[in-house]
Amino acid sequence: MRPSLVILIVALAGLFGGGVSAWYAIRHAEGFGAIKIGPWTAVPFASAEDVDPYVVAKSVVEGSVPLGITEGLAFSAYSDSEGSVLSLTCDYDISGNTPAAKLWTLVVYNASDKPVESEPGDVSATYSGAVVRFGDGSYRISLSRHAKPGNWLAVSGSGDFHLTLRLYDASISGNSQLDTLRMPTITRRECL
Length: 192
Fold this sequence. Notes:
six-stranded antiparallel β-sheet; globular; single chain; 10 strands; alpha+beta; four-stranded mixed β-sheet; 2 helices
């Protein structure tokens, strides 16, 4: 075999392997400095100057702008509290409390990182001011294809999904308080 052909094959294999590994890292890696609390993961310094380049690439691919550390913190969950992947064919309860923040939002995203579409009049996102709470300040939000009493987010379609909980103006300063945060649990109920 000619040396130039061997060099070309090796170069193409290297480009392919590098591209596949970069794609995997961008789609699946949480980034350096990521914190995990139950099923929830956040990258507290995703907007810092010296941020991990894979975190920047992930933000570009998702079309998201990371919150600055003084603005808030975004947590994502791709599995329930037992570790099973979140599926649009199942019902879930999100319950407990969120860390102290002036405002928080909860959005259901499909596998393509687009908000889950629901039937007209139904919603697949909520915020702290719209959630009805129990006497102790905790809450339960049901995710289901069918209307549920209380706090309910509509889901439809099939495949995997993930949740993003954004805490705005949270009383969290750096990494010192992040490991003591209590996040809501995600409990799977019935599946189709």
